[in-house]
Amino acid sequence: MTGSVTVQSIVVAVKDQVSSDVGGEAVILHMQSGVYYGLDPVGARIWSLVQQPKRVADLREAVVDEFDVEPARCESDLIELLQKLLTEGLIELQDVRQS
Q1: Per the domain annotation, does 3 fall within a domain?
Q2: CA distances in angstroms from 9 to 5, 15, 34, 55, listed in the order given
Q3: pLDDT digits (tens), the chain, 99 positions
Q4: Please, which residues have CB within 8 angstroms of residue 50's CB and are 6 or more apart in sequence?
Q5: Is residue 87 in a domain?
Q6: How far is CA 94 from CA 10, 19, 56, 91, in A?
Q7: Which of 5, 70, 93, 94 has its CA at 20 to 30 Å from residue 85's CA atom?
Q8: DSSP alpha helices (H): ranges in 10-97?
Q9: Predicted pLDDT of residue 63
Q10: Residue 17 pairs with which residues in a beta bridge?
Q11: Do the domain assignments include residue 5?
């Protein structure tokens, strides 16, 4: 997958995966590669939110509201996580015009 995640990006989990909540954390299996991934509780919350298309700015606001984190730090960490998920093929970017 190509592209860069920005605060204006719209992201969504790909269909070719299955995931489960395990004790507040998320376990994700990418069906095409057969690779498992794990996310901590904050990552698991973000994962639950991206099951439907979401703008990164909206994800940032949700995380800031739910967790004790400064908005700037949240945005930086969120974009880093989403970029990794994109690189691994677990999420995709949607065209802003589709929203």
Answers
A1: no
A2: 6, 18, 27, 6
A3: 468 999 999 999 999 999 999 999 999 999 999 999 999 999 999 999 999 999 999 999 999 999 999 999 999 999 999 999 999 999 999 986 654
A4: 11, 12, 13, 59, 82, 85, 91
A5: yes
A6: 5, 21, 11, 10
A7: 70
A8: 41-49, 56-66, 71-87
A9: 97
A10: 30
A11: no
- Report the CATH number that the domain containing residue 77 is assigned in CATH: 3.90.930.60
* Reported pTM: 0.91
Going by the DSSP 8-state scheme, the letter that residue 20 receives in this structure is E
What is the span of the domain harbouring residue 40?
10-98
Cα–Cα distances in angstroms (integers) from residue 12 to residues 6, 23, 49, 91, in the given order: 14, 23, 9, 5
Look at the alpha carbons of 69, 73, 79, 82 in this order and tell me if their dihedral is positive or negative.
negative
Asked whether residue 14 is assigned to any structural domain, the reply reads yes
- Hey, what are 84's tokens? 């990794």
DSSP code at position 90 = S
24: its two tokens? 């507040």
